[in-house]
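Listing 4. Sequential folding, example run.
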Amino acid sequence: MSKKTILHLLFLLALSGALIYLTKSFWMSVGIMMLLLLIDSLLLQYDNRRRREWEERHSINSDESESDNGQESES
């Protein structure tokens, strides 16, 4: 596992312990953690989609600039 994954898991563990301490209810803490994990996964999907679109846009731009440079040198 990467260091980032381990830190993420440790953060979630500390957060769940703090929720149990604050709410004094295991089931309420479980519900809040489920909502937080859902939001976390949705944000991760959104970030991955935006990054993929950005990479595709930049790869298309770099391909166009390479083909333009190649055509200029042949003329």
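-- end of first protein; second protein begins --
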Amino acid sequence: MTTPRHPNFLASKLAQEMRLALVVLAVLALVPVAVSSPYWLGVLIVSMYFAMLSMGWNLLAGYTGQFSLAPAAFAMLGGYTTALLAWHWKVPLWIGLPMALVVPGLIGLVLGRIVLRLSGPYVALTTLSFAEIVRLVIYNSIDFTRGDQGLNVPALIDSRVGNYYLFVGALTVITVGVFLLLRAPTGRFLLAIRDDEIGAASRGIDVVRAKTVAFFISCAICGIAGGLYGTFAQLVSPELGLIAQTGIVIAMVVIGGMGTLVGPLIGAVLVYVASELLRDAGNVQMIVFALLVIVFARFFREGLWGLARQAIARRRSATRTAASGV
């Protein structure tokens, strides 16, 4: 059981992480000034797509303690919601994209009411089963979804730089939204459930309701990320929902810092850019990331951000000690 910490400490920690998250987002916003390569701008756009998935998954796993294996499946559902509306009924994107948030969110709401009454590995197993069922249904519904051929999606913005700033803006809104949620009473309930679910229930917190809200928001975030990715790639396919995609998301969060606001941002960008640099090495990149996940999960629970915070704290302590000795 994790020892509860004082609310003021948690609020201060969250505010510090939010400030750093805004710095990371500002740096991302300035990248096109120095980088003009369409390829690398595309790589960073996809890394921001994964950052959105990581933010959604981290809200559920890092802050609520519920280990879902379906973030990629909900991104796929969001992408297909927008694509199917445009393909079959010519629904414009200004309607289709919001539906990419609503439909996965509502599906997550129903699934959450069922799944989140379970505990331990059963949540992970149930969400994994759901993810595979949804992917196989889409894969085999050839007349409706075109199966593994995928569906073409209209482009929302034709410019690569325009798409880049669209993703920066969406990622910023999601980050600020998660920050505000965590500062609200609901966020404190989620942290209490993560630290001690039985204790939270004994204090009068409706545990299932709070976890369901987190599940709904997490699924909605993944859904809108999938919808935006579809308009960028102009194609959605069942590959979006592969369990390997979820594995990448988990690796990003664990390496960046699980249960932190800035960790998913750092982890997503670093891991995806590194995977592109290691692409010529083949499957070696997956072995490297798997080993990193094991090491960080075992020894550095707060990931790269936790290591950086500890280094800063040690330096400040050394500075104070030196100043007091003068």
